Amino acid sequence: MNRKSLITISWITFFIGTVIFVFFTPVKTFRNYLVTMVISALYSFTIAVGNGLINDYLNKKYSWVENTRKRTILGIIGTLLVNVVLVFFCNYVNFIIFQHRNSAHFFSGAMGTSNWLTINVALLISAILHAKGFVEAWKSSTKQEVVQQKLIAKSANAQFESLKNQLDPHFLFNSLNVLSSLIDENPGQAQRFTASMSKIYRYVLEQKDKELVTVEEEINFAKTYCDLLKTRFEDSVSFDFNVNEKDLKSYVVPLSLQLLLENCIKHNFATSSKPLHIKIYSENGNLFIENNLHQREQVKESAGIGLANIVQRYSLLTKQNVFIEKSATFFRVKIPILTQKTTAMTTQPSQESMAYQRAAKRVEELKGFYSNLISYCLVIPFLAFINLYTSPQYLWFVWPMLGWGFGLSMHALKVYGIGKNWEEKQIQKILDRDHSKNL
Question: For the whole model, what pTM was predicted?
Answer without folding.
Answer: 0.43
